[in-house]
Amino acid sequence: MSIRVYHGLQSAPPDFGPCALTIGNFDGVHAAHRRIMEQVSALAGARGWKAAVLTFDPHPARLVAPERAPSLMTSLPQRSAFMESAGIQEVLVLPFTWEIARLTPEEFARDVLAARLQARFVLVGENFRFGAKASGNTATLAELGVRYGFETRIFPAVRRRGRIVSSSEIRRLIRSGNVYLAGRMLERPHFLEGTVVSGHGVGSKQTVPTLNLETAAEVLPANGVYVTRTTDLDNGRRWRSITNIGNRPTFGGGGLSIETFLLDPLEDPSPARIRVEFLHRVRDERKFDGPAALKAQILRDVDHAKAWFRRTDILVS
Fold first, then answer.
1. For position 303, which CATH number holds?
2. Distances in Å between the alpha carbon of 213 and those of 81, 102, 199, 220, 266?
3. HEC assignment per residue over 157-215
4. CA–CA distance, 304 with 282 (Å, rounded to integer)
5. What is the pLDDT of residues 54-73, one digit of tens each?
6. Which of 100, 151, 227, 230 has the smallest set of CB atoms within 10 Å of its CB?
7. pTM
8. DSSP label of 70
9. Which has more pLDDT, 252 or 51?
10. Same domain for 78 and 121?
């Protein structure tokens, strides 16, 4: 059975619970999120409950502190798919309105968690805050759980390479170009999805032909060249690839472009929608003396990418 996603308290069915539940925004559904969800799933299975997530849309900061609201790495459908792979059975997406923002911690625990969702167990991270003006913390949640019939457990921080795994740290890594460490924290490559659009025609005539990606993604890797893996979203075809993000300085600059060169043969039909996964940073984007010099560098980048794939054997057939 596929994951069930409900939008708003009014859409949650009477049998949403009893459930083991975790609460948060879960952007990226990274390693720490997955450990929490796997524990929720295991406990729910052992006690005959449902494994559930309560999340919010939009991100609460977009309402209460829009100047600090983070850009998001993943859309709601993407997050739901990753949650399902971690064992979650149902998700309640709570529209974050001023009505919700003004709930006291007790009102949130009593009316939402206990009464509406029938939570029996709530697992959250160490920095969890909730209720009006973020006035409730993990100690508050534990106290209210005793009062309203659910057990509270706090999940410790998860570390990778000595760093605490968090959505904000992963966004910083991606934007700095460190896609490899970001991928370790995500437990998968960071990716961009979108449609293939016509480029400027320069690549096919003067350098190498590429797939040009148009995406609505909010978090982009730093400008530069990356070893990537490209998937056709309509039929699952996959290719090893190399991708440049930048402003095409050799050709006078312009708007941002995301151009992917496939290392494997492309047979018809050409993909209309693709996912590009970022595996390893090769170099910064820079201006060359002309198309010939750029093409020579692209061919060196291709050799670099092929060697990287041979070393890592990361492309699963």
1. 2.40.30.30
2. 22, 41, 9, 12, 16
3. CCEECCEECCHHHHHHHHHHCCHHHHHHHHCCCEEEEEEEECCCCHHHHHCCCCEEEEE
4. 8
5. 999 999 999 999 999 999 99
6. 151
7. 0.91
8. P
9. 51
10. yes
